[in-house]
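Hi U.,

Before I forget, here's the chain from the pilot set. I'm dumping it here mostly so it's searchable later in email.
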Amino acid sequence: MKKFIETLLNIYNIEELRGRILTTLTLLLVYRLGAQVVLPGIDSVQLSELANRTDGGGLLGILNAFTGGAFANASVFALGIMPYISASIVVQLMGIAVPYLQKLQKEGESGNKKRNQITRWLTILICIIQAPAYLYGLSALGVPDSAFVIGRGPLFMISSVIILVTGTIFAMWLGEKITDKGIGNGISLLIMVGIIANLPLSFTQEFVSRVSENNGGLMMILIELVLWVVIILLSILLVMAVRQIPVQYARRTAAGTNEKNVFGSRQYIPLKLNASGVMPIIFAQALMFAPAYIGGAFGDSNVGQWLQTNFSDIFGLWYNVLFAVLIIVFTYFYTAITVPTNKMSDDLKRSGGFVPGIRPGNETSEFLDTVMSHITFPGSLYLAAIAVFPAVVVKLIGMQQGWALFYGGTSLLIMVGVAIDTIQQVNSYLLNRHYDGLMSKTSRNRRAGTI
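Structure:
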């Protein structure tokens, strides 16, 4: 505890770091306040059914979690930051096939700026498509017609679409400002804060269920909290686990009065156990509604009834079996397109480095590709196990569905990944400050003739 307090004092003493943290907290507060502002023309009192539809997971639950409840509130931030995430994924995937985007990837900072601009325009296009769909879909999600105070005529639709698009662009701007002026990745922090916003209510519901209904009592709550900590630790291991590939750099000759050989240092290429992050879960989740829709197309037939029954429950057995298989498949797919082993091999060859025992060039590329395939398999199994764990705790110990979602899946991995990234950035400031202090102290000692 003393060490933790000292760390907080060190953070406060670094003026730049203190300012960045305050900026980050202020912008996050603005985002959270905006998530509570209901669209003009909608009666917020009559949105209870929409909130019920978004509870308990599924795609609607994920969207609501990522927006911090703004989706269920019919807020000006109802679309959240997800259109920007979708646009980023599309641009990243198109970079494999579109020569122009491939060229931008090789242009460094100027190319990144152009890609970011393309992503922003694509975000606006996605918002223009999603906003009317969201507004028209409110009735299907249980919002009564009486909730639309001025009706759903052209005035309401046009103004609401403009507000929703502007809300997403403003949220995107907040995220970019946090990245530039604050601490951590702004877009990721907005998503994490939205997820955490649902945590107190979910835990309260679980607590009331256990205590008031004699469903295990406080002892069961304690067991669940211990289990939650264990799952978080396992998720941290998944996020941080790497396979280090040794790299040896060629021996160089140092020119001077007496020429001598200088042996190259050995370094490592860190290949992540889970190089694809949470993207396989997001891709798989997006496809998991297909079986139920296909079942609806078959109508009342045995096949249709079986598909609708088994794939409508996100905590059901067959749903999670297919979910796990899709996660494994998408983990391989996304790792293959995001880990450029050929480029890594070429960069290594140009810098005079080589993997001991492996020839530079194609053999190195094939070796790295083989290693990635080997470590991706256990990584994909690990990721799939964490993704389906909420269903396990719901079925085995009767946990509330809202609270169970924090025991795995996209929500937990995003929280862990963003928290680790932010903490690492804070530690970088602390280590740099500490390093400067050690250097100045060492210099003073040497001038005084002591070490």
